[in-house]
Design brief:
The protein has helices spanning 13-25, 48-59, 91-101, 116-121, 123-131, 146-159, 181-190, 209-212, 221-225, 256-259, 281-284, 291-311; strands at 37-42, 63-68, 75-76, 89-90, 104-108, 136-138, 166-171, 196-200, 216-217, 230-234, 266-268. By secondary structure, the chain is an alpha/beta fold. Phosphoric acid mono(formamide)ester (CP) binds next to helix 2.
């Protein structure tokens, strides 16, 4: 693996899940990258990604340096820009400089949700993959969140009672316009497994076809939930009417009544979550909720990804 950008970066997803599960049983077993440095740049807030990735690097015996990238110079993203306005450092220079300090670089850079074409170009990630001399870990870009998705697959593997499960990706209401990255990424990864996938959302919330191609979309949420083994819940803003909230229909909130339609289904969410808006307390605090196991697995997902990048394996 050269970069950890999307599911396509990985040669063998099941082998990466195996590796993460092995690391979970003994997080300090492999110290072959001891003393190396991970530089983690955050243009946006984070609780799980920031702490779990630092912990992952530390488990490997590495140093982790974390920077709030939005508090430094404003970066120029455009090739050939005449930098006489408010940008002070070109991303290609930053990428080369950080490569002198780091063995691996992780970046979080959310979308603006105003210009769809620009967001879907995922400029920060692609610039780093082009100009940095060290591998990249995508810590959530404008359109993808592979560290979360790998943790989600690890969690499904740990809890599944059969190989092929019915997995439902359900939209839920939220008062703020949120990115599509977690949902895109979940589709990117889950569709490369043996599981059956159904997507459910109100009309108008169709995701980018690049991620939904070949997937079943069921606009009746109750029907989608019937017989499901896993309910993966996430809000996202509209892709078609880009970045807009089209409705906040409370009837789409995940409740116990809806979970009762499933095959004793497990509830999943990447967190943070708006309780009693996206999901009721009853569901998220139930025995069938996997949200804290998902959060725990973020460490081993990041650890497996960083180790594979530095070892040039998987
Ligand atoms: N799920 C997730 O990425 O959480 P943070 O935004 O807190 O990192």
């Amino acid at each position: 693996m050269e970069n950890f950008y999307s599911a396509d970066s990985v040669n063998d997803i099941e082998a990466l899940v195996d590796k993460a599960l092995k690391l979970k049983t003994d997080p300090f077993v492999d110290q072959s990258h001891k003393g190396k440095t991970a530089v983690l740049l955050f243009f946006n807030p984070s609780l799980r990604t920031r702490i779990s990735t630092q912990k992952a690097a530390q488990n490997l015996g590495m140093h982790a340096i974390t920077m709030n990238a939005n508090q430094g110079w404003k970066w120029e993203m455009e090739d050939g820009a005449v930098m006489k306005f408010d940008t002070s450092e070109h991303i290609k220079d930053a990428a080369r400089v950080i490569s002198k300090y780091a063995d691996v670089v992780g970046i979080r850079a959310f979308p603006g949700l105003e210009n769809r074409d620009k967001d879907y170009r995922d400029e920060v990630m692609h610039a780093f993959m082009k100009y940095a001399e060290v591998p990249l870990v995508n810590l959530e870009s404008s359109i993808l969140h592979p560290c979360q998705s790998l943790a989600d697959l690890i969690t499904i593997r740990e809890t599944q009672s059969k190989k092929k499960n019915k997995v439902v990706l359900s939209w839920a209401p939220h008062p703020k316009a949120l990115p599509q990255a977690v949902s895109n990424s979940f589709l990117d990864w889950i569709t490369k497994t043996e599981n059956e996938l159904v997507i459910t959302h109100p009309k108008g919330y169709e995701l980018n076809e690049r991620f939904t191609k070949g997937c079943t979309i069921e606009y009746d949420q109750a029907k989608a939930f019937e017989g499901a083994d896993y309910i993966y819940t996430k809000n996202w803003s509209s892709y078609e009417d880009y970045g807009k909230i089209l409705n906040t229909d409370e009837s789409w909130m995940i409740s116990q009544d809806k979970m009762n339609l499933t095959n004793n289904g497990k509830f999943m969410h990447c967190l943070p979550v708006r309780r009693n808006v996206v999901v009721t307390d009853e569901v998220i605090d139930s025995e069938n909720s996997l949200v804290f196991q998902q959060a725990e697995n973020r460490v081993y997902a990041a650890q497996a990804a960083i180790h594979s990048l530095l070892s040039k394996s998987i």
